[in-house]
Amino acid sequence: MSAQVIDGKAFAAEVRGQVAEHVARLKADHSITPGLAVVLVGEDPASQVYVRSKGKQTIEAGMNSYEHKLDADTSEADLLAVVDKLNKDPAVHGILVQLPLPKHLNEDLIINSIDPAKDVDGFHISNVGLLGTGQKSMVPCTPLGCLMMLRDHHGSLSGMDAVVIGRSNIVGKPMAQLLLGDSCTVTIAHSRTKDLADVVRRADIVVAAVGRPEMVPGDWIKPGATVIDVGINRIDAPEKGEGKSRLVGDCHYDSCAEVAGAITPVPGGVGPMTIACLLANTVTACCRANGVDEPEGLTA
Ligand code: NAP
């Protein structure tokens, strides 16, 4: 294996440390405590784990955490009323509605009801538009975490050839916008892309956000390229015992690591950066709301 391993777990701990420092300063200098409200509708087990983890890390960073757990059959009107209340609450600087929502709720409608200034997930149509036009916005957490790791590793990304595999609104599209913003030449690949292997082979930076276990093999990777693996896929692991499973990314780690210059592991790469960036976005939103200088290096 020749690639340098980009340690997302350690980097996320650094980001959380910076967030905690800014929170302490906001408290000491301005008597402001940033607050993050998370709304969970229903009992999806994975969402419950995420929400718990977000709440714990919010408190550890010195911020206020507000959790709103609503029944799975909550009506759209009732959920909109909760969001409206949070929009108006000056103690709440960030609002996150945990996705996916139960099928009877219109996700776009709910997300677009969040005050864009408090939209710490960066999914509101205003923030999508601001990011797309290169204006100050709230930036989606997972691609922001990828960008931070890339900047940290490379310094400038200017002129690099980047291929993003996946075009979701949550990861692929904002990732491509961020790379374009840093002056990469960007290709977005998806399920209809022809000759994907050839497309990926020309990239200096590969960001895989597909959701297909180990889809990208090492022989698609240009020697020395940087591989950011966003995928989180659970697969059977009979070698660990009957009924056991393990997490893998969208890239075949061992073969990619032989060729790449740097690579993020799964787990321990992009995953931990996502919540760290959520905390960073909450501090950024709090500073903007209060006219305080926002921290450097914690947004795009
Ligand atoms: P998604 O909404 O399902 O989008 C997947 C994308 O991959 C789509 O654009 C799809 O293309 C494309 N795709 C599917 N099969 C393909 C193929 N054979 N070749 C090329 N492209 C293909 O997924 P997502 O929400 O972006 O998430 C992607 C992965 O990242 C998942 O494993 C998810 O668990 C993980 N994730 C991780 C984090 C984190 O914190 N680390 C956060 C979010 C997501 P079409 O558009 O043509 O269908």
Could you explain how this protein is built, in words?
This protein is α/β, with parallel strands linked by helices and about 300 residues long. It has ten helices and eleven strands. The protein has helices at about 10-30, 45-60, 75-90, 105-110, 125-130, 140-155, 170-180, 195-200, 255-260, 270-290, and strands at about 5, 35-40, 65-70, 95, 160-165, 185-190, 205-210, 225-230, 235, 245-250, 260-265. The strands form three sheets. Strands 1-11-8-7-5-6 form a six-stranded parallel β-sheet, with helices on both faces. It has a three-stranded parallel β-sheet with strand order 3-2-4, sandwiched between helices. The chain is globular. About 45% of the residues are buried. The mean pLDDT is about 95.
Structural class computed from helices and strand pairing: alpha/beta
| Poorly predicted tracts of residues | none
User: What is the average per-residue confidence, as pLDDT, rounded to a whole number?
Assistant: 97
Share of residues in helices = 40-55%
